[in-house]
Specification:
The chain is an all-alpha fold and 307 residues long. Helix content is 69%, strand content 0%. The protein has one domain: Orthogonal Bundle (Tetracycline Repressor, domain 2). The chain has 18 helices and no strands. Helix 3 runs antiparallel to helix 11 (185-206), helix 11 (185-206) runs antiparallel to helix 14 (229-251) and helix 11 (185-206) runs antiparallel to helix 17. The longest helix has 26 residues, at 63-88. It is globular, with a radius of gyration of 20 Å.
Amino acid sequence: MRPEPTSDDHIVPDSERRGLIGVLPRPARPFASLVRLDRPIGAWLLYWPCAWSVVLAGPRGGQWWLLLWFALGAFAMRSAGCVWNDIVDRDLDAEVERTRLRPLASGRVSLGGAVALLVGMSLIGLLVLLQLDRTAQLVALASLAPVAAYPFMKRITWWPQAWLGLVFSWGALVGWPAVTGRIEPPALLLYAGAIFWVIGYDTIYALQDKEDDALVGVKSSALALGPRARLGIAICYALALVFWLAAIRTVRPEALALAALGPLALHLVWQAAALRQEDGADALAKFRSNRFAGFLLFLACLVVGNA
């Protein structure tokens, strides 16, 4: 028998009625939604730069354990980032159709409850931090300021995606010293490439919200680029590939090693060429395909770093 609707069913998104969130106890569902438990794509995108850096650094002690620790850290810090973003944007989210049902914007989670969840996720991140080399710890801690500033960037600059690139790519700077104890050129080149990759895929994501963003006065690269968004995305992806080629060449200068990036290059070309700018569903699908793009670069770094 179908349950009777409750008084707040009109503010509960469908994502909380099905899937992993749907099987949780009702009081836990808004908190699971707050950390985007039903949308793990963000954790994957945060994780991949860490993983690339670890495996490109080569087969050294604890490499595989580091990958598992970074997976936990990516989940915790992405969750904490989502909570912080929703705390800062709770009033804006209430004005945007796609985000008005978020737990804070709809009032299903209190500000105090959100802060408690933020602290809990941060403590998990601290546990992961304690497993790393001292240099990696210091580099990871240096990311906190730009992470905290990110939600405000859409109010300041037309290119908040560039700031997100700085933040979401940071794992490339942490993974390498976690293995080697120091930052070296390949890590910096991976990081630079990841910044342009993030700008590209987050511009695709922002295509979904162009109309709402314009109405509420929020800035984005999708609005800045307008009809030239596909060209801008293609340029960002091309620059990402250039930096990643340089990273691989620094580790293994043989020409054959550069072929490891072939599958990823083809995938990114497909994304940019097949993108339908005015189709929000297509933009979301192309954005989500970057989980696979990150995996392709992981395989390339694994082959080159461990050959």
